[in-house]
Amino acid sequence: MGNVILAASTKSGGSSSFLLIGLVALFGLLYFVMIRPQRRRQQQAQQTQRNVEPGARVRTTAGMYATVVAVEDQDVILEVAPGIDVRFMRRAIMDVVPDGAEGLLRRGRGCLRRRAGGFRRGRARGLRRGRAGALT
């Protein structure tokens, strides 16, 4: 009886080391696939936020496009519309938009476009109402 327990414990020792090597390899793969690229994106975003200059066209984390008017210590003042300045933290700047790229981004399906009467949706999406008001 004692020999059976001893034999069982020696066989499981080899499989536990294989399991340990597998877990280390899995964490290594996770690091190179997920964590390292995320750190690179964060460093690029921080560099972009540090190098923002007045006159640059930027996109905020909320998706708003604006022009940088002034840069202070931790804040930037953005002009979101003619004559309307808003103070944002530098962290809120997602990226600097090249000239002319904003118009291309606005022409997508379902996005809001500026018209003479205000904002209107480009294309209807979602549920529509039928004849008797029932959803189709």
Q: Could you characterize what this model shows?
A:
With 136 residues, the chain is an alpha+beta fold. The chain is built from two helices and seven strands, in the order αβββββαββ. The strands form two sheets. Strands 4-3-2-1-5 form a five-stranded antiparallel β-sheet. It has a two-stranded antiparallel ribbon with strand order 6-7. A hairpin with a 2-residue loop joins strand 3 (75-81) and strand 4.
CATH architecture of the largest domain: Roll
By DSSP (H or I, 4+ residues per run), the number of helices equals: 2
Give the termini separation: 73 Å
- Name of the level-1 CATH class of the largest domain: Mainly Beta
Radius of gyration: 28 Å
The CATH topology of the largest domain is what? SH3 type barrels
- Strand segment tally: 7
In percent, how much strand structure appears in the residues?
25-35%
User: What's the overall geometry?
Assistant: rod-shaped
**Helix and strand sequence:** HEEEEEHEE
Order of neighbouring strands in the sheet with most strands:
4-3-2-1-5
Q: Which key phrases capture this entry?
A:
5-stranded antiparallel beta sheet, two-stranded antiparallel ribbon, alpha+beta, SH3 type barrels, about 140 residues
Topology:
Blueprint: H1 2-50, E1 57-60, E2 65-71, E3 75-81, E4 84-89, E5 93-96, H2 101-106, E6 112-115, E7 118-121
Antiparallel strand pairs: 1-2, 1-5, 2-3, 3-4, 6-7
